[in-house]
Amino acid sequence: MMNGLIDLHLHLDGSLSLETVRELAPELTLSDAELLQLLQVDANCRDLNEYLTKFDFPLSLLQTPSAIEHAVYKLCEELRLQGLAYAEIRFAPQLHLQQGLTQGQVVEAALLGLKHSTFPAKLILCCMRGSENHAQNIETIHTAAAYGCAVDLAGAEALFPTAMFEDLFQLAIQLNIPFTIHAGEADGPASVYTALKYGAKRIGHGVRSAEDPELMQLLVQQGVTLELCPTSNLNTQIFSSLADYPLRTLMDAGVKVTINTDNMTVSGTTLEREFQLISETFHLTDGEIRQLIQNAADAAF
Ligand SMILES: [Zn+2]
Fold this sequence. Notes:
Strand order of the largest sheet: 1-2-3-4
Number of helices: 14
Number of strands: 8
Oligomer: single chain
Helix content: 40-55%
Largest sheet: 4 strands, parallel
Bound molecules: zinc ion
């Protein structure tokens, strides 16, 4: 087992174990295989939009304080057993309001889950890309400020470009809230430029920065860290094989990159597995692996 790994990009709803799902929905009679079909993408996943459909079922289970608390607790325990040193767990409070909770109540439940585990972790609250949820996104920023969390912008990047959400990050800066932005995943380098313009010091994925040498230079100059999630990017067909994954291009340019899971259940992976995959594919040295972990420690919120 690799000890001491750090996951900075890990979605709660995409990382519920089968055991947790069964605990949250004891009435389920599906087999493990049938359950996985609901929760996990297969080799035929077409793109990010299809990938995002795998969140519907787990989200439906995370609509009460006790379910949210339990899911966060179980995820922390799982990460602890996997030997991780630290993680930042993210979710969008506005997607947990189907049974009348407020965003504040959602976050309080998640914080209780953190508290019950000895595993060191923090929360990142995701704002969601969309055209009709502006007020909810603003509320997410204020909730993050109230509870000492960081923020993120997640969702369908190609449908709702980052440029639609500038005021959210102006508010985050005003309130002194650290943030990361999903960019350079389904959308190209332009989305990363936009995220940098808004003051992001971390980028969720950002892997397509490798298409633009000037952008990579800018990332180095500004000390920006990329939260790379290799298997997730294969699932969403950003790259057809790991050999095409531009890890070396980014590392050789001096960009600070970190390795993360994105969604352990949707992508069927663990952080150790991600490290094994990239180590084998790119023949990383022990020093390079240590550097990737150090980058994550340095960029932690
Ligand atoms: Zn993500």
